[in-house]
Design brief:
Layout (H helix, E strand, L loop, with lengths): L1 H14 L3 E3 H6 L4 H9 L3 E5 L2 E4 L6 H11 L4 E3 L1 H8 L8 E5 L10 E5 L8 E4 L2 E4 L1 H8 L5 H13 L5 H7 L9 H11 L5 H14 L6 E2 L2 E2 L2 E2 L2 E3 L4 E6 L7 H16 L3 E6 H6 L1 H18 L1
Parallel strand pairs: 5-6, 13-14
Antiparallel strand pairs: 1-3, 2-3, 4-5, 7-8, 9-12, 10-11, 12-13
Length: 300
């Protein structure tokens, strides 16, 4: 019986990155005396309040995170910068951050504990078998704490890792109205995202093309089987304007690459500008258009 309980405890600890909570040991049938004996004999090592490492003192990064979550009890999840680090969208946090989904005043050494009874089921998940906030909730949480450039990098990383793309993130914010991080995150997304209609974008881009010495383009034309944004058939020039400033998802990148490759194979010159460039870097867009136009005219 004792051996069976020991195997259960060891198996549980392995699934939890080498740590186990006192409550879990009690649920497996270990009494206080048995737990104390295992501590004295070096089979259990206290690492946090009510949490032990099994067999060895050293813990991995994941083990430290799991220990912090277990030490905070029911409803605890890794959150904020620690969750961002685990998702791979943030830098190493100086302290482990944990949110508890109940009203509680709790202190744990080395852990920043936040009582968040309003954190919904939709805002929590698990990654690497560690409970934590979802990518969307994590980005909302860190939006109140990070400088704009770091927050933009986190959104970009979430997109690259296929956790959530900027367009889906913007839609998801509607379900989090009133949370502190929603406003700065929405402002960041709107500032860098394609939020104009096609006609509004055309009104921004066409003057730049004219200033670069190009005639009026054809718009909404099908070229090589694709509908293109702007087309100058006399020059063999196609211009596409991307909606997102961020790194695009793999599927979108593949579609964009196929379009550009098809145009190039057909002997056309294909240029691609982001909405951010058209809106905030008009000088760059004009220069590229002017140089390309001059090159194409010299070849005809």
């Amino acid at each position: 019986m004792h051996a069976a309980r020991g195997r259960e405890a060891w198996g549980l600890a392995r699934r939890q990155h080498g740590v186990v909570a006192r409550g879990q040991l009690l649920a497996l049938g270990f009494g206080s005396k048995a737990i104390r004996h295992r501590i004295e004999t070096g089979r259990l090592h206290p690492v946090m309040t009510g949490v032990y490492s099994v067999g060895r003192r050293e813990l991995s990064r994941e083990g430290r995170w799991m220990a912090a979550v277990l030490a905070c009890g029911d409803g605890a999840v890794l959150s904020h910068r620690s969750a961002a680090e685990l998702w791979g969208i943030g830098n190493e946090a100086t302290r482990i951050e944990v949110s508890i989904r109940r009203r509680v005043a709790l202190r744990r050494p080395g852990v920043r504990v936040r009582a968040r009874p309003g954190l919904s089921d939709q805002g929590v998940s698990a990654h690497c078998r560690i409970p934590l906030t979802t990518p969307v909730q994590t980005l909302i949480d860190i939006a109140t704490e990070l400088p704009e450039r770091q927050l933009e990098r986190a959104v970009n990383e979430a997109d690259k890792r296929d956790l959530v793309d900027p367009e889906s993130l913007l839609r998801a914010l509607e379900d989090h109205s009133g949370e502190p991080g929603v406003r700065p995150l929405r402002a960041l997304l709107h500032r860098h995202n394609f939020v104009l209609s096609d006609s509004e974008l055309e009104r921004l881009f066409v003057p730049l093309a004219l200033q670069a010495g190009l005639p009026l383009p054809l718009t909404g034309q099908r070229v090589n089987g694709f509908e293109v944004d702007f087309f100058w058939p006399q020059l063999g020039l196609v211009v596409e304007t991307d909606g997102w400033h961020y790194h695009r998802t793999p599927a979108t990148q593949s579609r964009d690459a196929l379009r550009d490759q098809t145009h190039t194979a057909a002997g056309l010159t294909a240029l691609r500008f982001s909405f951010h460039q058209v809106k905030y870097e008009p000088g760059h867009v004009r220069r590229i258009l002017a140089r390309t136009t001059a090159q194409l005219r010299s070849e005809t």
